[in-house]
Amino acid sequence: MLATEGRTGGAARFALEEGIGPVPVDLEGDPARPGFVWMGHRDATFGPEVRDRAGVAAALGLEEGDLLPGAPIQSASTGNDFLFVALRDRAAVDRAALDARAAIEGAGATAALGVFVFAPDATVPEPRVYSRMFAPRSGVPEDPATGSAGGPLGAYLVRHGLVKGGGEVAVVSEQGTKMGRQSFVHIRMRARDGDATDIRVGGGVVPVLEGRLRLP
After folding, report:
1. CATH architecture, range 42-203
2. Which of 155, 146, 144, 154 is CA-nearest to residue 177?
3. Domain coordinates of the chain in residue numbers?
4. What is the per-residue pLDDT across 96-138, written as a single tens digit (0 to 9) for each?
5. Spatial distance between the Cα atoms of 206 and 188, rounded to a whole number of angstroms
6. Are 187 and 172 in contact (CB under 8 A)?
7. What is the DSSP string of 34-48?
8. Residue 38: partners with Cβ closer than 8 Å, 6 or more residues away
9. Among candidates 108, 109, 68, which has minimal Cα distance to 91?
10. Does the pTM exceed 0.85?
């Protein structure tokens, strides 16, 4: 939208300052009307595994059996922290309903983060996950598209073997479908020995509203 409104000076590459250091941005297509935007993420950092799997599942209104076996509940960040909870399938993701108070008891300090639930999507041939993100403690009951979670999500998938292969890896996170605001967040990275580097998150946008601020 900044490019479309002529606020980027026609540049195809620039940086945004969002309180976590400069975020590099690359525009695809005409810089005045780009069809796709990529934002660079720094390498991810990870918190300790949350051991109370039953407690976290209960906080999501689920059973422990709804969790994806072998996938740890863990926080990760490329600038903003999220708690990642891998579930067995799309149906479990759709049934999730976060109880913020129960999440505090089940996940401790990490409950203050956005809680990102997802499941590998076996219905499509390319690497894809089906996702939802809850952050009620930040005033966001559910977010339809969370670009800042895309980077650490990609790193989590690589770290725990939920995407296969090395070298350039591309993953799509389908989010917002359950709430009727479907989005597709694209993640590209370089994977090697369980580590993800050169992480980029991108997509297109659709304007939904416009506002004007009048100053006294």
Report:
1. Roll (3.10)
2. 144
3. 1-34, 42-203
4. 998 866 665 556 545 557 899 999 987 787 899 999 999 987 8
5. 21
6. yes
7. -SEEEEEEPPPEEEE
8. 25, 26, 27, 28, 188, 200, 201, 202
9. 68
10. yes
